[in-house]
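Researcher: Before we compare anything, I want clean individual predictions. No alignment, no superposition, just each chain on its own. First chain goes here; please echo the sequence and then give the structure tokens.
Model: Echoing the first chain and its structure:
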Amino acid sequence: MPLFSVIIPVFNAEKYLKKCIRSVLSQKNDRTEIILVDDCSTDNSLKICNYFKKNPFVNIIRHKKNLGVSISRNDGILAAKGKYILFLDSDDWFYPGCLKNIEKLIKKNPKTEVIIGRYNSNGYPPNNKILFKNNRSNNFTASEFFLYINRVNFRPMIIWHYIIKKSLITDKNIYFVDVKNGEDEEFGMRLLCSAKSISLLKENYYWHKKRTQGSLRYSRSLKSTESYLKLLIEYYKFMGKTKLSPEKKRFINECIRFSYGEFSARIMLHSKSEIKKLSLILKNYLKKSKLLLNQIKNKNIYSLLKNKNIFLNKNLVAKNILDVIKNTKFEFNQIYIYCAAIHGVATLNILQKNKYKVISLVDDNLDIEKQTKVSVDIVNGKSFLKTIRRKNEKILILVCQQTIEIFKNIAKKLELNGIKKRQIINVRF
């Protein structure tokens, strides 16, 4: 029986797929199988998969129609024979020798059910140092782990974090929800809340290639917004049927806050007809879901799910953002929006509708030539910091960042370049 099953969902990935597969084969670990799940690719991806088929450690699953990444990963799990499961995206790759490091950790902690590995990325933030910064141990009980991650204020939710004992997945029925976005967040929540023993792998094992340079490239499709709406309900369903410690509840509430933020930012950019469709989707989804409204502590989410009226929620979100501006305790005549992902664009939309003048969007991870079109200038973060000392004191910088640690880092950079604390406001949806 293999020790590792590496599941690689494949869809039109011909550019990086060879490098991805070879990064696993080059580990020279004869206890590793590779499961390639081709999701009806229309390029040369299947041809590349078949090229590697001659290797006895490579298995191929072929979908007759495009089913999405969640179903692809679930099919990979069902086919896996390994004791531990790893997920690898088709345009990413493993660090050399990483499987040996993982195997050493398993031998040291044989009861571990989830290993959280260290990854690097060409995107923002560049790595996940926060999780590994202050810990004195690489092995935790469930209670120890949640106390630790709540203390460092970090949610290890991305799918390439995990090396998972397969028995945990099958015994607890932990599979991916079929949604367009955020499926790994919800999967990670149930995974971590179900594990009894969790370990940290301090060596880098995974390289994630950011698919587009520039965080303004977001998905504003109806399917994407619908995904975060459904995930909110799934989180509350899990909380309602599972006995959880206060530490786990705190952790899940942060997951809920994140999904609600993603949903709220997106609804600001939808038309009236699209919001009507979303309200109908919400009503139909709630009919199929056993959800106890009295367990929902967040007033905004309670109102949204109780009334099933997304128009009301959109107005509330706009009011909350405007209240942040109105409560600013100094006079300003210029507004800059920093960290211009979908939250930045949504904030811009709200402010412009209410006659506020925004000078520009500022982004740390920006490819100027490939940007989503917006009605104001887009400025690279580094360029902005070089010129910020020449700005007057009547500027207000709205940092549209959902993660507190990242906001603190941005605020620190701004303060080092002459901006006062009162001029920097964190906008959270």
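Researcher: Okay. Second chain, same rules.
Model: Second chain and its structure:
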Amino acid sequence: MSKSTYLFFYSPLHNPIDINDNHLQLNYISLFMLAEAEIPLKQNHTFQQGLTSKRIIIPMVLVMLWLIPNLRDIVYSVLADAFLQVSAFVALTLALYYGISHNLNTTPLQHWMRKKPYREIVFAGLMGVLPGCGGAIVVITQYTQGKISFGAVVAVLTSTMGDAAFLLISQQPKDAVIVLSISIVVGIVSGLVTDSFLPAPKQELVHSASQKGTISLPHPSLFGIWVSRISIVFWCLLIIPASAIALLLAMQYNVNDLLGLPDKSIKYLGAIAGFICLLLWALSAKNDRYSELTKENDNTLPKHWIRKVAQDTQFVTSWVVVAFILFELILLFVGDGLLNSLKLLGSTTVFFATMVGLLPGCGPQIMVTGLYLQGAIPLSAQIANAISNDGDALFPAIALAPKAALIATVYSTVPALMAGYTYYWLVESV
């Protein structure tokens, strides 16, 4: 296998998989171990570096909280809820999504887009509303290569909710339908308005950005490969039983009784699995950049959907744990007054949620969605954040076309405020 750099995202239009047909006949675990063994290594990320990454602070803090007797049950509950109520459903959803996308033929879609210019905006809106950031990243890279209009960029950044969509879909599917439906309509309209009436970056920016090509990523180290292998094995073994248990719990079955286990056994097993999931995410960091904390892992390994499932699920799980533990600790020390205070803010929460959406990466957005699921902020604020946030797609946009990224962010913020406040005044304030 050559030393060519692979794109760090997976999508129906960009599939950086380089695995021969013989490998495809093997089981999942063997497949990825063989594929990873062919990658040239550089010892640029050791175990010691993994332990000094800022990500490791999160599992260390959880361990310290667990050592406090009064907080031990909270830690158990947060980890178990994060894994059994979120991670299992996220992993299953991602597996179905990436598995289907891997075999999707996009040729008819490409022909359809070429016939009418406005269709690329519709396509961009549809790519953005897909859970995760892969669709938005595809559109961004197409723009930096001069293949689509700036309106498509605005459409995809406005409609995308990033990885926070997985959390909302798994916990409140009805609300997810409302939020994503509004996002895609607002995104497509924003894209059409942008191309028709609003100024766009000069064409020279597109050419200069396309000359930069894709972002070069360092080759993975032996330690990084082993973390990736463990993640794959972990999810290959647990995705089906964890999803089954999560479904039974959602249907209000007592899983301990069904399996003949002692009381709270599932809770403790879920907490252990949740902590392992968080630890794998923490050890996969390469440096201490802001993006390493708030976005999915950059990875030069040849991507397949199982590895993508593992990485994305671990990322979402980690931020869900952070959001849930902060919420529980605040309630413990402040009480229900926090919820009442946030509710008293009323429409102001829409503005704050929109401002959080301006931050690159999916981590802060997952925390906002976590607050909504806990009842701390209204649905209008969730809608505003979903439209305002650009997810991980903003990182390559800033790197390859910074002016376009800034303008597109501004263009997506205005409709976010309009949609959030409109929903608040028409529905929630009545």
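Researcher: What stands out in the second chain?
Model: The two ends are 62 Å apart (CA to CA). Additionally, Confidence is low (pLDDT under 50) at residues 1-45, 204-217.
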